[in-house]
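A.,

Following up on our hallway conversation. Structure tokens first:
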């Protein structure tokens, strides 16, 4: 018997015969936001990310401007050729996302087509993410409803950052130091 099985067996024994208790769940499941793109852009900017709101026709030119001179990993399914393969020498990664959350300024990757692997999105120092306006939802409950819990999920709220014991902010420790977001309207 594994440690996990042993612990679960002990729990089952301890609760055997106990009465079922209904737990009230009054969580908010929807939020009304008049300007999803505006709120999302504001919150992403609050995290010290670089944000561009661009009409969909202008997205390719904005991407070219952002990645000029960089060796970019471009994941399969992004719909753009010319990606860099070597993570050790890549300057950045270009992805899209599964969903984006206006209330928190969070981007969620489920590593589907165009979103790359976890390594591709965490190793390079720069991440350029393209978010379509129809991928932005008001809050976390709406985002969770769109996601498949069996997929690997990476939740990104700004560039990677942490603080040392003296509360000095250090960026780029656990992922890209720079996050740039192009919101396609």
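Then the amino acids I'd put at each of the 185 positions:
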């Amino acid at each position: 018997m594994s440690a996990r099985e042993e612990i679960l067996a002990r729990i089952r024994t301890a609760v055997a015969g106990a009465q079922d208790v209904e737990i009230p769940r009054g969580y908010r499941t929807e939020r009304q936001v008049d300007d999803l793109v505006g709120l999302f852009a504001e919150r992403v900017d609050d995290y010290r990310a670089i944000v561009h709101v661009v009409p969909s026709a202008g997205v390719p030119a904005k991407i070219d401007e952002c990645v000029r001179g960089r060796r970019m990993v471009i994941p399969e399914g992004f719909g753009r050729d010319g990606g860099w393969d070597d993570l050790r020498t890549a300057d950045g990664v270009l992805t899209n996302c599964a969903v984006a959350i206006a209330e928190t300024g969070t981007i969620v990757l489920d590593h589907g087509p165009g979103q790359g692997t976890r390594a591709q999105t965490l190793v390079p120092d720069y991440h350029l993410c393209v978010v379509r306006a129809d991928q932005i939802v008001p809050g976390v409950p709406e985002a969770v409803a769109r996601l498949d819990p069996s997929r690997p999920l990476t939740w990104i709220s700004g560039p990677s950052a942490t603080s040392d014991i003296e509360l000095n902010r250090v960026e780029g420790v656990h992922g890209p130091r720079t996050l740039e977001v192009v919101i396609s309207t």
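The longest helix spans residues 3-15. Curious whether your intuition agrees with the design.

B.
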